[in-house]
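ligand=WQD
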Amino acid sequence: MRVLVTGGAGYIGSHTVLALVAAGHDVVVVDDFSNAKKAVVSRLEELAGRQIPVHAFDLTDAARTDELFATEQIDAVIHFAAFKAVGESVQKPAMYYRNNLDTTLSLVEAMQRHGVTRFVFSSSATVYGEHAPVPYQEDWDRLDSSNPYGQTKVMIERILTDVAAVDEAWRVALLRYFNPVGAHPSGRIGEDPTGTPNNLMPYLSQVAVGRREKLTIFGGDYPTADGTGERDYIHVEDLATGHVAALEHLDTMVTRTRAFNLGTGTGTSVLSLLRAFERAVGRELPYEIGPRRPGDLAVTYADPARAHAELGWRATRTIDDMCADTWRWQSQNPQGYPED
Ligand code: WQD
């Protein structure tokens, strides 16, 4: 299939581009490069062994989005493009609603005009909110989120569900990720957050490479084995193959819209991840235990049984793989990608 990957120069998008090529699909990337460097494209072409068409514009521009579908023969869309910083979304809710919803609506309307009916959406485990029982299951029907970023994911799942409900040709997969980490084993692409990383793994890898003084563990008094928060960390390469599996499942999917958890089904504590990263680096890393971060849950992890049964997909990489691959990327690219 010829697949439009929105946000294809981003962290998960870029890894998915390579997985699509490896599975024999053609790829077209659209990215506004608001949160990605141009250098990603040349790295992708180096690793894919082929040129990759890239359109650089903002998908909130409905006219340009329609023109893209008129000029490129798109069979399916995998939609990553979005603002995704939880904390920033609390400070700038209107910007998040405008961007994340308008990009999606531009895509949906262009797809309707051009007869494209296959959609894979990059959703998030954050849609389960604070009250869903762990391990999270897809049939939980009270989706909610404590922050505007997560609310945009809840709303977009609703938009896509309603669009598919009135067009029998549509098939939509809603992929709910847990905590994406790791990097392509080549070390040529990886996570390169702008500014100070919000998330644990990129912060930890920047401590290891000397860009940050030490890790602050947010809370050592949670009701867990070692007192630190537990999350379902999933290797970005497993996420990428999960997207290909979902895309290739759409044609045989009975329901028009279906959610799938992409996780390992296992919780790992912050301290455990730190120790695994120290094994990857070969030395101890400086850290302190600080206060809990407001809004954090103690334990979250997936029930991935539906993805196993219906997509024939399973996460295979271990925590040590995630740390080794992250460290290879970070140590080969101490400052991330070259500036544009
Ligand atoms: C993981 C654990 C922290 C940083 C977020 C978003 C979620 C999704 C994935 C998009 C927690 C602890 C972290 C640090 C720490 N993104 N931590 N020190 O919050 O589980 O999920 O990213 O969909 O929407 O909420 O990920 O990496 O921020 O935190 O101790 O410097 O690491 O308390 O236990 P989180 P995270």
